[in-house]
From TrEMBL:
Molecular-function annotations in GO: [protein-PII] uridylyltransferase activity
Organism lineage string: Bacteria, Bacillati, Actinomycetota, Actinomycetes, Mycobacteriales
DUF294 domain mapped to chain residues: 214-341
Domain Protein-PII uridylyltransferase N-terminal: 24-153
Top-rank taxon: Bacteria
Protein's name in the database: Uncharacterized protein
Length: 352
């Protein structure tokens, strides 16, 4: 498919939106995957933006084609606008008032079955709307937000708050009550974060009203889940690296914490880092470093997608400059995470 560009993804998204039935939607999505697979030589940020838009369109169209009054939201990389082709879907549903929970789950299951036919896999960790945890009434979501932010150590509070902080509505549905000072667990917020009220805005406001939830989110962000092996460790046998887990995800998590802490409603990781830069939560130079690390790591991840299984790469298979870049990213992310942990231990981020 010569001459394919990211403009073709915009056309593919329009075709998906125009699908009038399930078969047309499946056919349009299959063509979109083919287009995405042939795209080369574009900036990763632009590709991620366009693919995320296409994914959101697919979810909205699938939900509309099967009917139902529920509100659908996407989270994760699709919600942030950072999804690359092959990304799975993290979804949430706000059930309409009076909807039977079993009926709502059945509808969501049917939507995800259709999306699977379209080539979009649900999150392998189970964060999708066909599960009861992610398919709730507005009242249940509101109560959950208050619980997860006031007791972040309980009921996977940090995970749920993180998902909601990245959540974007792709279909209509019931609106959340206004976020006003004096509401249960919600502090006053700037008008830009209040209109229109939604799950993401309420979560951010609730987290700022409960500093313990921000502290828990930072602790989670700085926890090392994977590492880029050093040159010496490679010779000692540690020869693989998971670029996403070791170099991309840590920056995403730190940026989310910093932006929410600073009161920003930014979504993409670079925008979040820019919004928090120079605040008491994130040094301007560190924000610039993290943004550069994120851009480089995302580019390496895209270029090397065919070199490993499940994103795990043999370091020896990488170009020397990519090995050097990944090791540098690993060092910078570790340094900044340690700095943030130290500052947190000195109560530097406390509101008092």
């Amino acid at each position: 498919m010569p001459g394919v560009s990211d403009d073709d993804l915009s056309a593919a998204a329009a075709e998906i939106a125009a699908a009038s039935d399930a078969d047309q939607l499946v056919a349009a999505c299959i063509r979109a995957h083919s287009v995405a697979g042939a795209i080369t030589g574009v900036q990763v940020s632009g590709l991620a933006r366009d693919w995320s838009t296409l994914c959101r369109t697919a979810v909205a169209t699938a939900a509309a084609s099967l009917g139902g009054p529920d509100q659908w939201l996407v989270s994760g990389s699709v919600g942030r606008g950072e999804a690359l082709p092959g990304a799975d879907l993290e979804t949430l549903v706000v059930r309409a008032d009076g909807t039977d929970p079993a009926a709502g789950l059945a509808r969501a299951s049917a939507v995800h079955e259709l999306l699977s036919r379209c080539g979009f896999a649900a999150d392998p960790h189970g964060a999708f709307a066909a599960r009861a945890r992610f398919n709730r009434s507005l009242d249940d979501w509101t109560a959950g937000i208050d619980r997860w932010t006031s007791e972040p150590e309980a009921d996977r509070g940090v995970v749920m708050a993180g998902l909601l902080a990245d959540a974007v509505a792709v279909s209509g549905g019931p609106e959340l009550p206004d976020l006003v000072a004096g509401g249960p667990g919600v502090a006053s917020a700037p008008p830009a974060l209040v209109e229109p009220p939604d799950l993401r805005c309420r979560t951010g406001a609730a987290m700022r009203a409960h500093p313990q939830s921000l502290a828990a989110m930072l602790q989670d962000a700085c926890y090392e889940r994977a590492a880029v092996p050093s040159r010496l460790r490679i010779f000692g046998g540690a020869s693989t690296a998971d670029v996403k887990r070791a170099a991309v995800d840590p920056v995403v998590r730190i940026a989310r914490w910093a932006a929410v802490s600073a009161g920003s409603d930014a979504l993409t990781t670079p925008d979040r880092l820019a919004a928090a830069a120079g605040s008491r939560f994130l040094d301007a130079a560190d924000a610039a470093t993290l943004s550069r690390c994120y851009t480089i790591a995302s580019s390496i991840r895209r270029r090397t997608r065919d070199l490993g299984e499940d994103g795990v790469l043999e370091m020896a298979a990488l170009a020397p400059r990519d090995r050097t870049a990944l090791r540098g990213i690993g060092r910078e992310v570790t340094r900044i995470a340690r700095t943030l942990n130290y500052l947190a231990s000195t109560s530097a981020f406390s509101p008092w």
